[in-house]
Amino acid sequence: MYELTVVLPTYNEAGNLPALVHRIERLGLNSEIIVVDDGSKDGTAEVARALMNEYGNIKLIEREGKQGIDTAVRDAAAVASADYIAVMDSDLQHPPEMLPVMLREARSGKDIVVASRYVTGSANRMGLMRRLVSRAATSAVHFLVPQAKNIRDPLSGFFLFYRKAVSLEEATHGSYKILLEIIARNRVSAVEVPFSFGERYSGKSKLGLTEMIRFASLTFRLSDYRAAKFITVGLVGIAINEGILFMLEPHAPLLLASAVAVEASIVSNFIMNNTWTFRRKAKVGFFRGLVKYNFVTIVGGIINILILGMLVFAHFEYLAANFIGTLFGFAANYLGSEGIVWHVRLPN
Ligand code: GDD
Ligand code: MN
Question: What CATH homologous superfamily does 4-222 map to?
């Protein structure tokens, strides 16, 4: 019985696997290694078999065609014999010397230990472009998937988890971002430890357009498409606002008519968001929720106006300034709705 299973997904990593395996074996952990190879054409599987002859604790899963890291981890976990499972790149970007540190954290009771690129003490050898893309993707994830908010690097590919705390059944999309999926779908305790993200030793990254599209679709799926629904509700709200103003204007002073129209659209937006956008979350009580929603809407409106004012002051054209203000107001509304009105924090 092993304490730790190290999962190494490989796709054309023949030039990296031996060095990595030797370094893992040298740690002297009570561990096994499971290599999941997706039909590499550079002989990675043969290299793995040679390593199996050298060490008695290596398994090889061979699959046909590139099927993604998430399913690789799922398939490895199904045959893993240890309680703790570590996942890492096979290209030496993730130093295996971190494993004992991560294992120690896990033993002390954390369900997930993330080797993080973004906490104090981390070092990062990513190029400027990759760094920007990675930061933008991480921010988008934090915005859209609130369960990931308290993890600074939810897109890390280097992590260790307690097998029994995590369900991997949903990991079927062929995505790279299995950690994100685990955090979003399971109620787990997590901790991040800093590490130094190195350069790929040999070969090149397999992260291409397909992987990026899969990542985007995974993120939207995990967010339950709430942002898109929220925007749709907002557009319907504008139509309601205009419609009611049109009906009332002949019979009432303009500002009064407008106030009624605005409040009517706030109420209808609240109802639509409560029954549609956030329906997967426990619905909030009608009046309590409506009061909070009004508050959030007012704050969003104020932010919109403030940004508009600041940008006009900085000589922006007023419609462009207002458009940017609207975006910020929308973001504030959305985050406020999620955090204050509907309390979206828990796994889907
Ligand atoms: N079995 C299998 N199947 N392995 C794969 C597949 C696949 O479809 N795609 C990639 N791999 C293996 C690679 O051979 C490598 O060992 C590891 O998975 C990560 O792939 P890389 O190509 O090295 O990814 P990266 O370095 O660009 O991205 C890394 O950093 C990201 C954070 O910026 C990965 O760790 C990502 O998971 C991480 O999100
Ligand atoms: Mn890599």
Answer: Spore Coat Polysaccharide Biosynthesis Protein SpsA; Chain A (3.90.550.10)
